[in-house]
TrEMBL record:
Domain NlpC/P60: start-end pairs: 335-415
Organism this protein belongs to: Nannocystis pusilla
InterPro entries, alphabetized: NLP_P60_dom, Papain-like_cys_pep_sf
Keyword field: Hydrolase, Protease, Thiol protease
Domain of life from the UniProt record: Bacteria
Family: Belongs to the peptidase C40 family.
Entry protein name: C40 family peptidase
Gene3D superfamilies according to UniProt: endopeptidase domain like (from Nostoc punctiforme)
SUPFAM superfamilies: Cysteine proteinases
Length: 491
């Protein structure tokens, strides 16, 4: 297949995700629908049950102490050793290697940006995604920003007929993002949406590469775009707008891919030595150069060794303990939510991926894949709540626990002093029932959608009495981040 035909076929794009869980490829599952506005009934105020609102901060039943790290260190110390490493170095290496296995995670497996690209596999992945998107546009599940459907000729161009020959001899050119770089799911800049057309949920925004993150340019594309990938997502970038370093030498690229790293604990600027400041945002990972005081930092002129103030970064190769997990988890508290990294925020899965990544533990990008990353226990939908909580608490004693339901994932904190189960997570919204709502009422009837849009501590009661039900009722998987033999004493 010639290159012009290849470019024409791919007008529809790749997967979208964030906190979504789509079959058969990592395409998006949209958030549950917002309540539908309705006319007020006779004798009822138009403001009696608004369709939308803003959540209180802190959230209902979240007390000030619930947002304090020390509180949860004390609570966790009662059930587990805060400072015992959850993995030996060999166990952690094996855990991370599994996240790169396609036989386990398929196209969502972590990619080695320096490994040769399999043309047949890449063509197959893209064809599957194209077919998925064609179905979405044909059914009008996705529309353009003005609400109109994609024109028929563009839908027809999504026919999955890519040939492996279009992807032979791809380079392994690795650069480093110097700022947020949007990664589009389709080879186009134009966003597309579900029919609600919420601008914060652009389905053409797969993710963003963040500052000091490696990114591989696979091949140039029409219209000034390029097919590119990070270790966790693939899509198209705008080469004219993307702020990238020059290509890296393979040895330097390997350092940016594998570390070891120091993690920025705050935003700060470093000089590139040529009169230009390099902005290093919170949570950026920088390869260590010599201990904690020097790191490899990418800038417009390339990569150089720079002094970094030890007070601004973590120690390299910190042990992965419960104390470290809680400390890093709370460092993100109140930072903004963003579907697909919209406006620089983090959705639920990006929050966990970045947080654990700063501790050396690799997670996939999607919620559904993160839920399969450790030891998994399925919770049947009809499982009574007391038994659900018993199983969650038993898992909490074994290791660090993630709680998943379709489209969302949370880090379990444990029980508070009153016995309430709590979690910390990045999320956009939740529903509350209005007075008079009856059990089983349809979605949008006498319920209000409250915006949260950030990383917060909450209980598992949010949503109780609504069409979505409470978090505790929705949890479908418990995932324990611990090695397989975690229940056995380690010598």
């Amino acid at each position: 297949m010639n290159s012009s035909r290849t470019h024409g076929v791919l007008l529809g794009g790749l997967f979208v995700f964030a906190c979504g869980t789509p079959p058969p490829e990592p395409a998006p599952q949209a958030p549950p629908p917002a309540p539908v506005a309705r006319a007020a009934a006779a004798g009822e105020s138009a403001t009696d049950c608004p369709a939308t609102g803003v959540a209180v901060d802190p959230l209902p039943r979240t007390r000030p102490e619930h947002e304090q790290l020390d509180y949860w260190l004390t609570r966790t110390a009662a059930v587990a050793d805060l400072d015992r490493p959850l993995f030996t170095p060999a166990e952690l290496a094996a855990f991370n290697a599994r996240i790169g296995r396609r036989d386990v995670f398929g196209a969502s497996a972590r990619a080695d940006l320096l490994a040769p690209v399999d043309p047949a596999r890449l063509a197959d992945d893209l064809n599957t995604r194209l077919g998925y998107l064609r179905g979405k546009f044909e059914s009008a599940a996705y529309v353009r920003g003005d609400g109109t459907p994609l024109p028929p000729e563009q839908i027809a161009a999504l026919t999955p007929t890519l040939d492996a020959r279009a992807f032979t001899d791809l380079p392994t050119e690795v650069r480093v993002a110097l700022d947020l770089v949007p990664i589009h799911c389709a080879p186009q800049r134009e966003p597309y949406y579900t029919p609600s057309r919420d601008p914060a949920f652009d389905r053409n925004l797969c993710s963003m590469a963040r500052a000091q993150e490696p990114l591989q340019i696979l091949r140039p594309w029409d219209g000034g775009l390029a097919l590119a990938r990070t270790t966790y997502v693939m899509g198209w970038i705008d080469l004219a707008d993307a702020r990238l370093s020059p290509p890296l030498e393979p040895k330097i690229a390997r350092r940016f891919i594998d570390g070891p790293f120091v993690r920025a604990g705050q935003d700060f600027d470093l000089s590139d030595g040529q009169g230009t400041d390099i902005h290093v945002p919170f949570a950026s990972l920088m390869p260590t150069a010599s201990g904690r005081r020097e790191a490899l930092v990418a800038g417009p002129g390339g990569v150089a060794v720079r002094f970094v103030d030890p007070a601004r970064v973590s120690a390299p190769e910190r042990p992965l303990t419960r104390r470290a997990v809680l400390t890093d988890a709370f460092s993100y508290l109140h930072r903004p939510y963003g579907w697909g990294d919209y406006a620089g925020g983090r959705d639920c899965s990006r929050y966990l991926m970045d947080m654990f990544g700063g501790l050396g533990l690799v997670l996939p990008r999607h919620t559904s894949d993160q839920a399969l990353a450790g030891q998994v226990e399925e919770l049947p939908p009809d499982l009574p709540e007391p038994e659900r909580l018993r199983r969650i608490d038993a898992a909490h004693r074994r290791g660090v626990v993630l709680l998943h339901f379709p489209g969302h994932i949370m880090l379990y904190l444990g029980r508070d002093d009153a016995g309430a189960p709590m979690a910390i997570h990045s999320f956009a919204e939740y529903l509350v029932p209005c007075p008079g709502r009856t059990d089983g009422a349809p979605a949008g009837e006498r319920e209000t959608l409250l915006r949260v849009d950030g990383v917060h501590v909450s209980d598992l009661e949010l949503g109780r009495g609504t069409s979505r039900t409470a978090f505790i009722q929705r949890i479908s998987r418990i995932t324990v981040l611990a090695p397989p033999a975690a229940t056995e004493p380690r010598p």
